[in-house]
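To close the section, here is one more complete example, presented without commentary so you can practise reading it yourself. The ligand is protoporphyrin IX containing FE.
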Amino acid sequence: MSLKFFKPLFDSFPWLLQQLNVEQKAVIFSCFLGFLALLWFFISNSNKGLPPGPKPLPLVGNLHSLDPQLHTYFASLSQTYGPICRLWLGKKVGIIITSPALAREVLKDKDTIFANRDVPAAGREFSYGVNDLLWTPYGPKWRMLRKVCVRDMLSCSTLDSVFALRKRELRQSIKYLYSRKGLPVNVGEQMFLTVLNVITSMLWGGTMTGEERASVGAEFRHVVTEIAELISIPNLSDFYPGMAWFDFQGVVKKMKVVLKRFDKIFETMIDQRQKLDRNGVGQESKDFLQVLLKLKDEADPKMPLSMTEIKALLMDMVTGGASSTSNAIEFAMAEIMNKPDVLRKLQQELETVVGKDNIVEESHIKELPYLYAVMKEVLRIHPTAPLMVPHCPSETCTVGGYTVPKGSCVFINVWAIHRDPSIWKNPTEFCPERFLDNKWDYSGNDFNYFPFGSGRRICVGIDMAERMFMYSLASLVHSFDWKLPEGETLEVTEKFGIILKKKMPLVAIPTPRLSNPALYDNSNKGLPPGPKALPLIGNLHSLDPELHTYFASLSQTYGPICRLWHGKKLGIIITSPALAREVLKDKDTIFANRDVPAAGREFSYGGNNILWTPYGPK
Ligand code: HEM
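Output:
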């Protein structure tokens, strides 16, 4: 009998039985035995029609034999009991799915039945009472929240419009790593901070700036780690919902304390934004918080967006987005360092596309097929959510011919499917080449490979994760060679959690490999990317007289906003609807002036016509 799973549980209330005398203990023991007999009767009758699984004990069900590494433990169960099996988690039925065909049945054929979540007590607390997107039951409110995320926050055009924020944060990390050249660096921690800064910049970057944002970033790192730990504690309240009220282990109590810290930050941010909006300040720096508050004011009265839901959504973005992406980048770095051949191929591809005398731009990413294959392979072998986020059927139904009761907790073991030898050749080997033929994608249509899930509850952050992962990993391996500190060995052991992480943090030493130290500093001082400028003439030598097509071709290479040096003057080229709106609508008054050419000055009687006159009373 394995009691490993109970260690955190025992640790969380060691005081329980210590308070009682001998008689009290005897009474409790007799009641306990009677209760067990009753439960035994119930359980032996309650497995009828359910999938096969290990024999449960009265009261505890199969909790006594759970291993904390749930993903590997569930994979071993499926070896014995087949692709659908059951466990008794105290009073709750757990169903484990471990085949593409059954995953399809749950996530596609019976998608609407399984679109609910099994919300743990800690999750209920951290989502402001199930008011976020992750835990909200499938229905009109979930649809409204999902629309807000997909359309207003994480769509491709919104992400395009804030690419400069990603660049700023990533360049800052590269600059920091350069300052640590030759010294050990905690890679995961650095990537966590980078992704977190990008996300918080998008959320309220226009609301707060500089040092204030940095100190909030540090505060968040502690709080997010604490939340992940509280969600991963095996909690009696989840296994025996009838006893949830007692909160024996104090998980909910601890979560309330953590939430208070978060809430204070959110309140300050919302307050600050509302003040700016009232005074008409900061209209030019739109962030998600501003968008959300506007949506709240303009929402359909039948489906209003409340302040609590806004805070819960902010919480999803911060907690869900940062560690998922940064953990995946850390695994990628470990796997790549383990396979020098992969690192060499990756660096070669980057040298061809970017060059050693240039920095990686986000616009390079679509020209890097090997990097894309590396990302897919990392998400195959270490899927960030190895059991997805548990689904919960809204009615009793059958899957694979077995009964799945309403309210059970359904785990889809995507980790095991991604390592199934009948699907993957040498499944435990890290081999990006298997993805080079573009046969597999993670859009959720293929149940052999679905690291972001599938169906209605598929991840909303796929585009964001893809951009951050590829851009960060490309910059890390393009800018530096990496080695382990003396005497350290490389390992890629996993530690289970709702978000999979590396058991031991990856600590590695960066050695700069670019031609010019200036490439590690923010040498373009935040300007958009663009072709290399020559001294004095800038980019004049390469201008094509057909400016409209030439600029279009530049935007293919450098993205929707790029720069050119016309001699001493800076030219900025905008090539996306979102950025055109930013210039011509959101920041209309700032951009309402003209850049008057010498000939125009002449032909307008010295800038006196409507075409060339500066914006103002005249
Ligand atoms: C490598 C990065 C990531 C991976 C592998 C990943 C994977 C997943 C998976 C497997 C699910 C659950 C699907 C299901 O239950 O069927 C999910 C849900 C979700 N993810 Fe991600 N995710 C990543 C990054 C992100 C980012 C960057 C964000 C936001 C900024 C995000 C926000 C969410 C949200 C809000 C949900 C819940 C959606 C719903 O229930 O409707 N994720 N993700």
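Once you have examined the tokens, check your reading against these statements. Residues 133-134, 146, 316-317, 320-321, 324-325, 328, 379, 384-385, 388-389, 451-453, 457-461, 464-465 surround protoporphyrin IX containing FE (CB under 6 Å). Residues 307-338 form the longest helix (32 residues).
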